[in-house]
């Protein structure tokens, strides 16, 4: 059961002049609500969910919340990032669309045409799985190595397009981290439909951010091995760079444990901007987190493991910070205030037009 | 700064009825002072050291401070650390009296991490050795091709007499087994085992810890053989095993590069070396709220409590056997490492030691916070009270 811990809460830092004004959306792990807060940390809106869950949502331009939720039961619920249901919920809490798939995990993406791309687990054929390098020997899940697919569905749930990872990944190149189990090959953790129609994703287990050509299915850009440590989120900035939340776990040699936000020029594969704390270990979220480039050039960061959302300037100055007061207990993570992801919506965001806030 | 780095410093928790009273050695790695604090967090003694940075020190029964420096003791080129920086390497040992006068020094540019002052007055040290090429080629694990200029290093022990003579030595290359002592796949092959601990047991054997193979070992002094090995699959990149009165071994399981887990947490475990079973553990709730991938240590106190140094966070805390935190101290001294950027401005401590009030090394010593009044006003417990 989730409980709000009084006094440990909310916005701890806010520079009105430097922060990007708007509303921040987050779903406390283990809770049955999704919250929207203003810059002062006031809860201006909340959505009630049908059951306590771990997931995350986005506010659509039509004002609805689209949420991936971990349904209470499913075939792979012990794997990290299990979802199971996509729910579209109106401002006043009515579920207007629902898509069930017990193999869905992590992220999703609503396209402009109203279709949705979901990430789902599929089994890697044994002959391919046997050729995949890396991972801890003999740790397949009941003999199976799970892989990822991206599936495009229309509002009626009809499958319009599907990409199967094992058809395009290379067992020689896409190598599993040697400290991870072979239960999964790639573990896609994010999904962005790019303006040119391609798909940007992040394969956590192989430390790779990739762009998939939607027409051919080919992986047309790959970056990350030897650079990343089980990154969790990749998005694209206005200047068409890739912004990555690099969790920083299982990093070769440097094992001290620190996360980074990194902006990569896709044409040169060079890091052109980055953020880490001083001391480095003060910002660390090995299991969940995301980052979002804001219109004023600041970056919103969700340090998921410790329930912290903060905003930094391009110079790395923290100008807004929120610590989640919502705690729940889980067998794996203990008593925690984790947040999978957070998103900031500017005051002029289309989906907030005419919204009635509870103040 | 994150909330952790804005939180109070000095002593933040003190349960007088449950904590084990005494003085705690506060030993920030990147500043030039070593301190003793009382249970309330008042500074009661200060040693001023000639070198920065260092690994850690101990208070000897004679009241002297013996510590392992990580910086050259003199400016002489011959004493400079020949190994790559940042390997937890040292440069030698320095012993100073209560008034910070130099009593003894031992220079060895290959010395690393720590040491053990033996009852006969000799000192056991850890020192880096080169692994013969034919053995190095057979070592499994590590990142391929990351030998250090083609060389794989490992560790040895030297027993050093007070006059500096090495009277006994042991070299890893002679006794380790490439088929058993397998490296973590994410460590560099320039550093096979990365020994980080050195304890001479009452029977003369040596208890040590190899970080890069996640293994604790007991080395038989007479033969040099490794008579006990434990760790792979149980602990990861551990530090500071210490023998307990009941025959068990207490160790800080750092948890860096933990196989099969991306959840990052440390724990302290007590293992029975005759059964290889873990008989006690301390793990925080949530587990990730206690994590130091590097350095760190643990000490079992006479009342059964355990003092834990979460080194990377500059935190020393004491837990009861039930895991209740009854004392906590956050190091208020921050500094940059002189040549490594990745620690940032931090308050690291390699290890912590609690000395009880009647400890021999404290006999007859004046331990009055008033003698360090200015320091206590700026960094003492009162300074951090709201």
Global morphology of chain A: globular
Strand count, sense and barrel status of the largest sheet of chain A are: 5 strands, antiparallel
Radius of gyration of chain A: 19 Å
* Cα Rg of chain B: 20 Å
Count of strand segments of chain B:
27
Give the percentage of residues in beta strands of chain B: 35-45%
CATH superfamily of chain A: TolB, C-terminal domain
Structural class of chain A: mainly beta
Q: What separation lies between the terminal Cα atoms of chain A?
A: 26 Å
Mean pLDDT of chain A: 94
Largest sheet of chain B: 5 strands, antiparallel
Key features of this structure:
heterodimer, A: mainly beta, Neuraminidase, five-stranded antiparallel β-sheet, four-stranded antiparallel β-sheet, 30 strands, 2% helix, B: 386 residues, mainly beta, 4 helices, 27 strands, 5% helix, 35% strand, globular, disordered N terminus
Describe this structure in words.
The complex is a heterodimer of chains A (359) and B (386). Chain A is an all-beta fold and 359 residues long. Chain A contains two helices and 30 strands. In chain A, strands 2-27-26-25-24 form a five-stranded antiparallel beta sheet, with no helix packed on it. Chain A has a four-stranded antiparallel beta sheet with strand order 5-4-3-30, with no helix packed on it. A four-stranded antiparallel beta sheet of chain A has the order 6-7-8-9, with no helix packed on it. The two termini of chain A are 26 Å apart. The mean pLDDT of chain A is 94. In chain B, the strands form seven sheets. A five-stranded antiparallel beta sheet of chain B has the order 1-24-23-22-21, with no helix packed on it. In chain B, strands 4-3-2-27 form a four-stranded antiparallel beta sheet, with helices on one face. The longest helix of chain B has 7 residues, at 373-379. Chain B starts with a helix and ends in a 7-residue tail after the last helix. With 386 residues, chain B is mainly beta. In chain B, a hairpin with a 5-residue loop joins strand 11 (153-160) and strand 12 (166-171). The interface between A and B is large, with 40 and 37 residues.
